[in-house]
Amino acid sequence: MYLSNTAKRTAMSSIAIHHSGCMNLIDRSQRTGRLHPTMCSQSMKVPLVLSESGIRFSLTNESVRIKFIKGLKNNKLTVLCNGYGPKSDYVGIGERKNEFHAEPLSGDVSKKTCIPDLAPQSGTKGASSEESLFQTKPKKLDSEVTPSSTYQILPKRWIIVILCFFAFLLCNMDRVNMSIAILPMSSEFHWDHTTVGLVQSSFFWGYLLTQIAGGVWADRVGGKQVLGFGVIWWSLATMATPIAAKLGLPVLLIVRACMGIGEGVAMPAMNNLLSKWVPLNERSRSLALVYSGMYLGSVTGLAFSPSLIHKFSWPSVFWSFGFLGSFWYFAWQHLASSSPLEDPGISTEEKTLIAKSSLNKEPIDEIPWKLLLSKVPVWALIVCHFCHNYGTFILLTWMPTYYCQVLKFNLTESGLFSVLPWLSMAAAANFGGWIADTLVSNGVSVTNVRKLMQSLGFLGPAFFLTQLSHINSPFEAVLCMICSQGFDAFSQSGLYSNHQDIGPRYAGVLLGLSNTAGVLAGVIGTAATGYILQHGTWDDVFKVAVGLYLGGTVVWNLFATGERIFD
């Protein structure tokens, strides 16, 4: 930004800074500023503080401190107000990049309205001369900041990712314990296959209700509150399950549906959080890590449930797993924030790094439903999420029963062998995330990466589930399950990453939309499997899943995209 003519005539006594459509004329000698009348509708004073470290001024209750490294060159000065928004919204001050360093401005630069903060800054030393003002030690440029050179322990964004990982670990621990406990419960309460399917599917009734609502809620108020609510809610419902079962089947169905309400907001809230915290080139890895928490939660739940049931009876599974949520909630309240803008502990360098490369946006007031539902890639997400979740939820809820009835494993063996496919998913999800991020970093289009990863996530399970019809060996059957679920995990770098690709501003809502279809698949698939087993065989169960996997592959490759279609 060039200095104004007035500034040139007064020997550099004032600086003109262009910011979001307004011209601020800052008079250094008077330490005040006013909005240029030709650019703004009104004039007002803007506080300005000079110090040894540079100039400090305020806009819309947010401050930015500029430290000039080499001073003014040829009557030109560059200012960087690097906030959160598209690159076109960034406004600079300085002729060369190595002439300044700026701390990030909180908020979306595109939303700034030139309303000043009239409270003067305190505790700064005045500069007596131009030389003392501009002579500061050089600092590393924002463009040169890298995680390895900036953070001594762990970047704050990865603390958020790890906390989300543990939330999803608890999510699936509390979900899969029923798939083990249902075996002694069905014996105690004399439930047939249809009733077992009803109990298993009741979770999805509540889960379905909060998919879109959770996405809208998270996009409006932020993901921290929504995810925190979800964990506490489903933890309480988990602990109430044994009492509900003894009170009768209707009460149990209601409590399991309430548990689904809590878990239903988790995925949209997490998607909202990561869209604000994680840069593009780390997205697949971060999502893969969080979703691997789900898989390891299944591993943990399936591994520990049998021993707890043998030692303390089946209610102990629900009480112990549910209580763990309180520990997570305590850590979440003390360590997490909905976005870098709200986090008091994040470093300046990390905030700058995220500001430059993340897809963060401010909370939205209205959801453009008609626009969202008018786009073919959105419907590709919805259809493919249904196709994917049908097979996934069948294995999640019915795998121990398959091992027990078909492979003749006992309760402990069913739990332990059910662990192996989920371990393979945890490993494959992170491996797939690394592959996807590497391909994107090497110039492969996001669209091609998403199509490749999701095709593997569909065709791999379809192939190995088909093989189960021709296998009699328990070892080979377990191996097919392991391979099927391992390939399934590549979906985390396919359709599960695509919501942030096509519409980062509406990431929570988009995931809520597609996951609603996915939950419907869970409700239908879990209940239908019980009905199919009453009148058919496990081969019939697997054939339906394979058909949906193949159909999803076609839809995804024809209509999906990795390009942003919503601003």
The rough form would be described as globular
Mean pLDDT: 74
What share of the residues does DSSP label as strand, in percent? 5-15%
Low-confidence parts:
1-152
Going by CATH, the homologous superfamily of the largest domain would be MFS general substrate transporter like domains
Whole-angstrom Rg: 28 Å
**CATH topology grouping of the largest domain:** Growth Hormone, Chain: A
Output the structural class.
alpha+beta
Q: Which CATH architecture of the largest domain would you pick?
A: Up-down Bundle
The helix content, as a percent range, equals 55-70%
Tell me the strand order in the biggest sheet: 1-2-3-4-5-6-9
**Number of separate helices:** 19
The total strand number stands at 9
Query: In sequence order, what are the helices and strands, one letter per element?
Result: HEEEEEEEEEHHHHHHHHHHHHHHHHHH
**Whole-number total of structural domains:** 2
**How is the biggest beta sheet arranged?**
7 strands, antiparallel
- Give the distance, in angstroms, between the N- and C-terminal Cα atoms: 27 Å
User: So what's the CATH class of the largest domain?
Assistant: Mainly Alpha
Region (Disordered): 120-140
GO cellular component, one term: plastid membrane
Organism: Ceratopteris richardii
GO molecular function, one term: phosphate transmembrane transporter activity
